[in-house]
Amino acid sequence: MADPPGCCAACATCLLCPYSCQWITAKKEKRKGLRTTKCDCIWFLFLFVVFLFTLVWLYFTIIILNDFHNFNEFIFKQRKLWLDWSLVLLIATTVLISYSSVLLVLALCLQLCGQPLKLHWVHKILLILTALVVAAAFTGLGIKWAEEWRSARISLQATGPFLHIGIVGGMTLLAWPLASFIYRTRNTGLKVFLVLIYCTVMIALYLAPLGITSPCIMEENQLPPKPALVGHRGAPMLAPENTLMSLHKAMDCDVQVFETDVMVSADGVPFLMHDEELTRTTNVQAVFPERAALNSTAFNWTDLQQLDAGSWFLERRPFPTVQSLSAADRYQATKQRIPSLGQVLEAAKQSNISIMFDLRPENHSDYQNFVNATLGVILRSGIPLQQILWLPDGFREQVKQQAPGVQQVYGRKRLQNEKEPLLHVNLPYQDMSSEEIRQYRQDNISVNLYVVNQPWLFSVLWCSGVSSVTTNACQVLKEMKHPIWLLPSSTYLMIWIVVDCVSFLVILWAFFLLKKCSHRRQAAESETDVLLTKINSLMQE
Asked: Locate the GP-PDE domain: which residues (predicted)?
């Protein structure tokens, strides 16, 4: 296989060495007999598939970062080990995508230079391992975290238009090595097959925007109001969760609702705590080592007040933002204690912030007493009842009778035969489509979705018209004055047409230019063959 005019011997050697894992000089006589076989082509195809596979996994990795704190908490409950596993995931994914990307670029450059695609066996083994690791990751995601598939579907509403442009650009660049291979190979059937496949894929991509929908494709004057912010356990990126410091930090972020979890102590005092055990967010293992594994409700209020509810935040650093806290904030965090519901209601009454809470654990034998104790604290606090958003389903009718001013929030969608209209719903963001959000908004039903941390997700829900979102990142979403992107449909149509036209012209140019290069090379080879024939004849004479 002759070297094309633009590929020097040094470049060919540098490309072959990392791809084939051996030093092959660029002299033709030493490369004689090295050709790309059918087996080599199959391995190149496998390399391309693995690259796409890891690229899709990279996309999923970025998407699930919104919910990864839940995964960290899950691992802690199972193994009592705290680690930011998102960092581990990102590093591993980056290594896999970088490895397959470098190999693919080397292969494409080798093809353009007319060099043989002799993939070394070490690379073959590593590619198989890469495919197995990514397949295992997808399988685990489907089994243990199935709702993230719905998150990925929602993410396409935010990224669909830009993914389309990127994929069209990538497939357009692929036209160069494809044209080079077609003009070099002598297998007519293979040529026709590759061209048909490529043309089919490109036509599908050119028409893909017909199936792309996004709530952010709208006119500026149609944009709904910005969703209100609900602090998930306060402002957990800035302060220890479910503490008075977290409540005050949430107020600084203009949060309208403080979302928390309430439990009731053994002596009947409602207090703030999310986990059924105290080990994650307190120093109970140091203070009460023999009772550390007990349920939070097994401790009386005097015992709970002895626990440090803030130092863990600085030690474990549940979010990267902990590193940027000021010295004053760090000192304040170490002084946090488990707050009672009464203390939180007093702070909320003074600041006019609403309180939304779950009452845990729902399956406790004394749950009715928990409801009574919680309701008693609310009524005695003197807080306006419209500032209380009641989430627990247990004994809801009793609560309506004793405190009719409390706002009832339901963790489900409305039913067809609803006895009384729902005014507030609180659901995971994966459970409602953009169409449902718009319909609820038209029917004056307030929709709060949780947990929304990433700006891209907040933008999609903003464009959809959601009333509020529960977030860990109130300090980030507070600063957003506008969705990340908003395109009028006419502008998107123009971008679609321009991208498709430019891509089509570049593909034609690639095939035309490489065809001319192919003809020149063939002409040069013919002249060389004629010259060699004449020299051979003269030598025989």
From this structure: 227-481
Cα–Cα distance, 229 to 472 (Å, whole number): 10
Question: Using CA atoms, how far apart are residues 45 and 39, in angstroms rounded to an integer?
Answer: 10
3-state secondary structure of 152: helix
Strands 257-264 and 228-232 come out as: parallel
- Report pLDDT for 112: 77
- Other Cβ atoms less than 10 A from the Cβ of 166: the count is 11
Given a contact cutoff of 8 angstroms between Cβ atoms, the answer to whether 469 and 138 are in contact is no
Return the pLDDT at 458.
Answer: 98
d(CA 91, CA 468): 33
> Is 331 strand, coil or helix?
helix
How far apart (Å, rounded) are the C-alpha atoms in residues 175 and 216?
32
Quote the DSSP letter at residue 415. Answer: P
* Full 3-state SS string of 473-518: CHHHHCCCCCCCCCECHHHHHHHHHHHHHHHHHHHHHHHHHHHHHH
Neighbours of 333 (CB within 10 A): 23
Q: Name the class of domain 228-478.
A: alpha beta
Position 525 scores a pLDDT of 52
Q: What pLDDT score does 188 carry?
A: 87
CB 458 within 8 A of CB 452: yes
Task: Give pLDDT tens digits for 163-204.
Answer: 999 999 999 999 998 998 888 888 888 889 999 999 999 999
Residues of the chain with confidence (pLDDT) below 70: 1-10, 12-13, 22-34, 519-541
> What single string gives the DSSP state of each residue in 235-303?
-TTTS-TTSHHHHHHHHHTT-SEEEEEEEE-TTS-EEE-SSSSSTTTS-HHHHSGGGTTS-GGGS-HHH
Q: Which helix (H) or strand (E) holds 427?
A: strand 424-428
Positions of CATH 3.20.20.190 in the chain: 228-478
